[in-house]
Amino acid sequence: EKVMEKSSGSAPVDNVFVGNLSFFCTAENLMELFQAHVPIRSASIVKTKSGLSSYYGFVYLENDDDASKVAEIFNGKKFMGRKMK
């Protein structure tokens, strides 16, 4: 299932969902990875109430037109031992 993709609606997409991340992945890791390909504003990892990783996060893009590009680049790419979705 392709999870990292631009919405089919007409509203601009400036954030991209990144799933199946390593438990050890940090927002800084995501920023470094994505910045090598597109300009980004920030990244975040979603955590449980107890502060543990929920294995997914978001990357906030500078340009909404880059959402499709990052989906093509990163969907299924292995990062920190897991295939991103």
Q: Any overview of this molecule?
A:
- With 85 residues, this protein is α+β, with helices and mostly antiparallel strands.
- The protein is 20% helix and 31% strand.
- It contains two helices and five strands.
- The strands form two sheets. Strands 1-3-2 form a three-stranded antiparallel sheet, with helices on one face. The protein has a two-stranded antiparallel ribbon with strand order 4-5.
- The longest helix is centred in the middle third of the chain and has 9 residues.
- The N terminus is likely disordered.
Write the layout of secondary structure elements.
Layout: E1 15-19, H1 27-35, E2 40-47, E3 53-61, H2 67-74, E4 78-79, E5 82-83
H-E order: EHEEHEE
Q: In angstroms, what separates the terminal alpha carbons?
A: 8 Å
Poorly predicted spans: 1-8
- What proportion strand? 25-35%
Give the C-alpha Rg.
12 Å
Described by strand count, sense and barrel closure, the largest sheet is: 3 strands, antiparallel
Strand order, main sheet: write it out.
1-3-2
Helix count from the secondary structure assignment: 2
What is the average of the pLDDT values?
86
What's the total count of β strands? 5
What helical percentage do the residues reach?
10-25%
* Structural class assignment: alpha+beta
Shape, per Cα inertia axes: globular
